[in-house]
Amino acid sequence: MPWDVVIVGAGAAGLLAAIRAAERGRRTLVCEKNQRPGTKILMSGGTRCNLSHATDSAGIVRAFGRQGRFLHSALASLSPEQTVQLFHAEGLRTKVEETGKIFPASDRAADVLAALMRRLNRSGAELAFGDSVREITGVSGSMRVTTNNRTLTAESVIVTTGGRSYPGCGTTGDGYAWAARFGHEIIAPRPALTPIVCDARWIKELSGVTISDVATRVVAAGRIYEAGQAGTSRRRAQKALAEARGSLLFAHFGLTGPAALDVSRAVSGASEAVCVLCDFLPDESPENLLQRLDQQCSREGGRLIGGLFSELLPRRLLHSLLGVLEIPVDRRAAEVRRADRVRIVEQIKGCPIAAQGVMGFRKAEVTAGGVDLRQVDSSTMQSKVAPGLFFAGEVLDLDGPIGGFNFQAAFSTGWLAGSHA
Known about the structure:
Blueprint: E1 3-8, H1 12-23, E2 28-32, H2 39-47, E3 52-53, H3 57-63, H4 72-77, H5 80-89, E4 94-96, E5 101-104, H6 109-123, E6 126-129, E7 133-139, E8 142-147, E9 151-159, H7 174-181, E10 186-192, E11 196-197, H8 201-205, E12 210-220, E13 225-227, E14 233-235, E15 242-251, E16 254-256, H9 258-261, H10 264-268, E17 274-279, H11 286-299, H12 315-324, H13 338-350, E18 351-355, E19 357-358, E20 366-371, E21 389-391, H14 405-420
Parallel strand pairs: 1-2, 1-9, 2-6, 9-21
Antiparallel strand pairs: 3-5, 4-5, 7-8, 8-9, 10-20, 11-16, 11-19, 12-15, 12-17, 13-14, 15-16, 17-18
Helix pairs in contact: 1-6, 1-14, 2-6, 11-13
């Protein structure tokens, strides 16, 4: 017997698509290659699952930048507020953290998945585990899905296979090949929300140090400096490829934490060498910081330069920054030249850290790239080149910042696809 809708992948987008389609009375089947649903849900957010963000639909759109316009209809069909209400209706209590991230009050991702499964079970949708899709063919009204077990026919197929991040979850990029066979352009997938690899020795020596508030900018490495007067050089203002603000953690391999993860897509997609410029005191202007340093050197000239600003920055970080500048940490403050004070402030407000690359898909929380949005109808999630074929979630060229934005996009696009398939 043919199905009305076959959904490939039981992740966040697939489960919402199945719930919506089945509740519309559509005979719905979800094919999942794993032996359980929602593998990525269970491991996300450190097994807590940051399911959305405390903002409105416009806030989600803004967070996705140029891709955000594609989400207008999806968010109109299922907004962040409606998403939270959906979980509340299933008995899941949620909480909002200071950063705006929404988590289950229990801090258990398993509770998020359990809520979705309760709704799915009531909807009447069927879920087949170990049903690994090999091929999708056909035309609208007569789609054919071949799995390792059987051949299925359906009026519509929704591809919700995810990208290539966390391949251990089964997200190995299968959906891209199927989309390409139907004539879809695939924007080259690359890791996003992943740690940044840096080789500088001083970075490795700071392993374990966390700075709670850092502004990061990714810029082309070859154009950081410009010639100044008398053969000197100065930092050159240039357009950032990406920028973010949040906590930053130094690790033995480089940089991680939200301030690094949120700009990693620019590093993985760069066609030339890039640097991460780190502003370790983003609320301080360079002028005020320099004035403050001048005053400290004047009033407390007997103190060691390595001990100044200790109330603003971790001593280990300040000592490393001075080391990069080749200014001895045991030099008396009064002995530090004005030109060196300017360099210290420059280093604190825009320390350039060369990026060698990123950790890759194995450590990436999401995938940048995927099915070209220009070939998908944003009002339905249906393919513009292959009617009857729908896409939702991370298989699309959609990737947002850390903070629940990507789950919200998956939920909303899945819900919209299920509303029209």
